[in-house]
Amino acid sequence: MVEAMKKYLYSMLSKVDGIYAIVITDRDGVPVMKVSTENCPEPATRPSYLTTFGMATDQAGKMGLGRNQRIICMYSSYQVVHFNKLPLLVTVIGSADANTGLLLGLESDLEEVIQDLKTAVTEA
User: Does domain 2-123 have CATH number 3.30.450.30?
Assistant: First the structure.
């Protein structure tokens, strides 16, 4: 099952030009599943970076803004799109010139994998 999920995630990397990685983590930034290309910036896949989305989501909720669904971070060479799928967080890392709308569109394509992983995480 895990290999089938990884194969599907690798197929997502080729679906949109400029995607470097898809990382699925728990809310503490611990990777549950990760696929990447050689172009992926290593610091963007570290748990210390990945956990910041979970913290930002918690803080936004405390400010009365409601549950955060997505965060898009734009850097000079990269962009990072985070999806809130608690208890999991999905991070898509791409080049700065990748189509952000297409990156956001991956959310619905990843829904089945995320549901399967949610089931596995909540049972464990």
Answer: yes
